[in-house]
């Protein structure tokens, strides 16, 4: 078997990594598959407030056009990426496939027999990055609205906004920050929670939906979810796994959390089971890997 690759995949947590993958593909005479995880430069424009005429944005725009035109196949994590690609380079573009993030359900089988501790206060858990897109300031302000209620919020992770968020929550003893933990510990932490929390910015960027790894981990854990989100394709609502309120609306989020905290345990468990069933049917990593493998078969 030759060591020369037939296919090189370039992913876009940033476009520089994808550009390096393109260069390798051309050097090796391989097909180039561009996986779009974040849409650049739209992400920095919509979420960071950087102006469209900023030199860095103009550079990213040029790289985005280049990569879309040079890819042999484009894969997007979000549904509706094809319309975005067409808006950038026109109708003559490479084929675009939608293959979202998923979850390895085997990671969660080891905690299937355990359950949340009902003797503890109602415990919300967030596990993930503490950055601008995660809108955790909304969660903290929601907890401020809930001061005096027997509800705790535990946040696991790190990121550029963590110190700011810790200052914001300094007067809220029910908000507890934890260091990032190994991925192997996440299933246990999620499954021990009363409910799970995820927040998003109110941004046009999410008009094509979202595909966050943490959301699929949440669903696989079998716990109900409180979500603050105003974008398209609301998976929490579609799966029946929890409640969704408008993004960046702390009062609505506080009311949703309070409602969950007062639900009987069997209702919360039913929500969690609906989410687990949905992710098993739609976002199992085995199913998604087969879809990705089929791209190789048709391209090589």
Overview of this protein structure:
This protein is of the alpha/beta class and 300 residues long. The chain folds into two domains: 7-102 and 284-299, Glycogen Phosphorylase B (Rossmann fold), CATH 3.40.50; 106-282, 3-Layer(aba) Sandwich (Rossmann fold). It is 44% helix and 16% strand. It is built from 13 helices and ten strands. The chain has helices at residues 15-28, 42-48, 55-70, 81-89, 106-109, 136-145, 162-168, 186-191, 213-221, 235-239, 250-261, 265-282, 285-299; strands at residues 7-11, 31-36, 73-76, 96-98, 122-127, 151-156, 175-178, 195-199, 225-228, 242-245. It has a six-stranded parallel sheet, with helices on both faces. Strands 1-2-3-4 form a four-stranded parallel sheet, with helices on both faces. Helix 6 links the parallel strand 5 (122-127) and strand 6 (151-156). Helix 6 (136-145) packs across helix 11 (250-261). The two termini are 15 Å apart.
CATH architecture of the largest domain: 3-Layer(aba) Sandwich
Would you tell me which CATH topology of the largest domain applies? Rossmann fold
List SSEs in N-to-C order: EHEHHEHEHEHEHEHEHEHEHHH
Total helices: the number is 13
The CATH C-level name of the largest domain is: Alpha Beta
Q: Can you tell me the number of structural domains?
A: 2
Gyration radius, rounded: 21 Å
Largest sheet: 6 strands, parallel
SS-derived structural category:
alpha/beta
Estimate the mean pLDDT confidence.
90
Give the overall silhouette.
Answer: globular
**Tally of DSSP β-strands:** 10
Strand order of the largest sheet: 7-6-5-8-9-10
What is the helix content? 40-55%
Q: Strand portion, in percent? A: 15-25%
């Amino acid at each position: 078997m030759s060591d020369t690759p037939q296919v090189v995949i370039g992913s876009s947590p940033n476009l520089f990594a994808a550009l390096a993958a393109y260069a390798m593909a051309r050097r090796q005479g391989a097909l180039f598959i561009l996986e779009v995880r974040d849409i650049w430069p739209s992400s920095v424009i919509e979420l960071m407030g950087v102006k469209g005429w900023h030199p860095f944005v103009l550079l990213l725009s040029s790289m985005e056009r280049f990569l879309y035109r040079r890819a042999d196949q484009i894969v997007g994590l979000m549904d509706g990426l094809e319309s975005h690609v067409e808006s950038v380079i026109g109708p003559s573009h490479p084929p675009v496939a939608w293959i979202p993030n998923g979850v390895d359900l085997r990671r969660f089988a080891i905690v299937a027999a355990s359950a949340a501790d009902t003797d503890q206060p109602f415990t919300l858990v967030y596990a993930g990055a503490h950055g601008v897109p995660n809108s955790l300031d909304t969660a903290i302000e929601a907890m401020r609205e809930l001061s005096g209620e027997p509800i705790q919020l535990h946040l696991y992770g790190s990121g550029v906004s963590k110190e700011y968020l810790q200052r914001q929550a300094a007067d809220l003893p029910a908000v507890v920050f934890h260091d990032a933990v190994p991925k192997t510990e996440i299933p246990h932490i999620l499954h021990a929670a009363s409910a799970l929390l995820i927040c998003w910015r109110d941004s046009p960027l999410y008009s094509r939906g979202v595909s966050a790894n943490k959301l699929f981990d949440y669903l696989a854990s079998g716990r109900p979810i409180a979500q603050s989100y105003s974008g398209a394709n609301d998976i929490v609502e579609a799966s029946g796994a929890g409640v969704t309120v408008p993004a960046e609306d702390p009062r609505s989020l506080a009311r949703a959390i309070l409602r969950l905290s007062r639900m009987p345990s069997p209702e919360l468990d039913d929500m969690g089971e609906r989410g687990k069933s949905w992710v098993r049917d739609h976002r199992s990593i085995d199913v998604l890997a087969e879809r990705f493998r089929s791209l190789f078969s048709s391209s090589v």
